[in-house]
């Protein structure tokens, strides 16, 4: 692999433009949602392919391992980087060693998988918490902290883009920087063969298969850009639905009168709510009260007999 970067010396080093490295980055993060969308659409029958949807992360982990593993080994870059004609080289030695390759694999394949799992776990803990289920303190801390950590990382990324543009750094992303790798133009000639070679038995079937697969993958990369747009459209559709507002804060007296009528302090007979305050009384108690005082007895909000609502909980007999 050392030969790959041997022709590049610091004097004639050509740095890929920010546009190219950003394009590679954006293609890389598109692959996951794009394939997810294809899986969602094609697996309309949940009984047959339900497992693929449920274990999509694991399916994608396997797929991504194969693809990125191959591209790192063969071209020294991720699928998206190679697609844009880029390859990874060590900032210092201008080579791409086995160690660089293994760490690249960890950052490209394993870390995103772990982050996705963490995000999903946090989302479900947050959901449980909002539905008043018990969530341990450290999990609460984790799901509260996660958005801030992500915002910080995004800011750091932006700083890296700017410093790459200003020629201050040789790498455009914190993750590549952590690996001490930079992106450079891919120069190695790929294996080429013609059908004549095939007829003369010069090309192995395995080579043909792998080339065909790669062409298919690279074509798919174009297709992915289209699916990304499709995905965005779908998200915009969802955005038009406003988020559910937070549940109202309980009133300080709410606990005191839980399951009892605030007037007679017994279990409510014919439970009746005052709609302006939410407190529940016996129908007789509140109706009698409102004849002399047009206010909710607990909150003192103005109320009349017209503001009473029957509560049908099903356990009032
Ligand atoms: Zn009562």
CA-based gyration radius:
31 Å
Structural class by sheet pairing and helices: mainly alpha
Bound molecules: zinc ion
Q: How far is the first residue's CA from the last residue's CA? A: 81 Å
Helix share of residues? 55-70%
**Count of alpha and pi helical runs:** 10
Number of domains: 3
- Total number of strands: 5
User: What sort of overall outline do the alpha carbons produce when their principal axes are compared?
Assistant: elongated
What percentage of amino acids are in beta strands? 5-15%
Spatial strand arrangement across the major sheet: 4-3-5
Averaged pLDDT: 81
Order of helices and strands: HHHHEHHHEHHEEHE
Query: What ranges have pLDDT less than 50 throughout 5 or more consecutive residues?
Result: 1-12
State the major sheet. Answer: 3 strands, antiparallel
GO molecular function: ubiquitin-protein transferase activity; zinc ion binding
Family: Belongs to the pex2/pex10/pex12 family.
Subcellular location: Peroxisome membrane
Membrane topology: Multi-pass membrane protein
Give structural notes.
The protein has 317 residues and is mainly alpha-helical. It folds into three domains: 18-186, no CATH class; 204-232; 257-310, Herpes Virus-1 (2-Layer Sandwich). The chain has ten helices and five strands, in the order H-H-H-H-E-H-H-H-E-H-H-E-E-H-E. The protein has helices spanning 18-42, 46-54, 56-75, 79-83, 98-130, 137-165, 174-178, 195-199, 205-239, 283-292; strands at residues 86-90, 181-185, 271-274, 280-282, 308-310. The strands form two sheets. It has a three-stranded antiparallel β-sheet. It has a two-stranded antiparallel ribbon with strand order 1-2. Helix 1 crosses helix 9, helix 3 (56-75) packs antiparallel against helix 5 and helix 5 crosses helix 6 (137-165). It is elongated. The model is unreliable at 1-12 (pLDDT under 50). Bound molecules: zinc ion. It comes from Anopheles epiroticus. Its main location: membrane. Belongs to the pex2/pex10/pex12 family. It is a multi-pass membrane protein. It is found in: Peroxisome membrane.
């Amino acid at each position: 692999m050392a030969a790959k970067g041997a022709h590049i010396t610091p004097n004639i080093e050509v740095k890929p433009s920010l546009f190219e490295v950003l394009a590679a980055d954006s293609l890389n993060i598109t692959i996951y949602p794009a394939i997810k969308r294809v899986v969602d659409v094609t697996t309309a029958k949940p009984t047959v392919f339900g497992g693929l949807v449920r274990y999509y992360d694991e399916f994608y982990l396997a797929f991504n391992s194969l693809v990125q593993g191959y591209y790192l080994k063969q071209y020294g870059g991720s699928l998206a980087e190679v697609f844009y004609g880029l390859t990874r080289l060590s900032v210092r030695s201008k080579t791409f060693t086995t160690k660089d390759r293994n760490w690249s694999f960890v950052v490209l394949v394993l870390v995103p998988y772990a982050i996705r799992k963490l995000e999903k776990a946090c989302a479900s803990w947050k959901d449980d918490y909002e539905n008043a289920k018990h969530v341990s303190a450290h999990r609460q801390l984790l799901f509260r902290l996660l958005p801030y950590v992500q915002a910080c990382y995004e800011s750091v990324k932006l700083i890296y883009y700017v410093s790459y543009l200003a020629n201050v750094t040789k790498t455009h992303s914190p993750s590549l920087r952590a690996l001490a790798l930079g992106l450079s133009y891919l120069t190695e000639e790929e294996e080429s063969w013609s059908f004549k070679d095939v007829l003369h038995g010069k090309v192995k079937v395995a080579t043909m298969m792998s080339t065909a697969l790669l062409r298919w993958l690279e074509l798919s990369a174009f297709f992915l850009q289209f699916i990304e747009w499709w995905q965005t459209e779908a998200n915009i559709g969802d955005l038009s639905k406003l988020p559910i507002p937070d549940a109202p804060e309980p009133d300080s007296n709410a606990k005191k009168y839980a399951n009892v009528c605030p007037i007679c302090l017994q279990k409510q007979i014919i439970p009746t709510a005052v709609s302006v305050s939410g407190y529940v009384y016996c129908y007789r108690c509140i109706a009698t009260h409102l004849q002399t005082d047009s206010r909710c007895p607990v909150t003192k909000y103005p109320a009349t007999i017209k503001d009473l609502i029957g509560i049908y909980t099903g356990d009032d007999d």
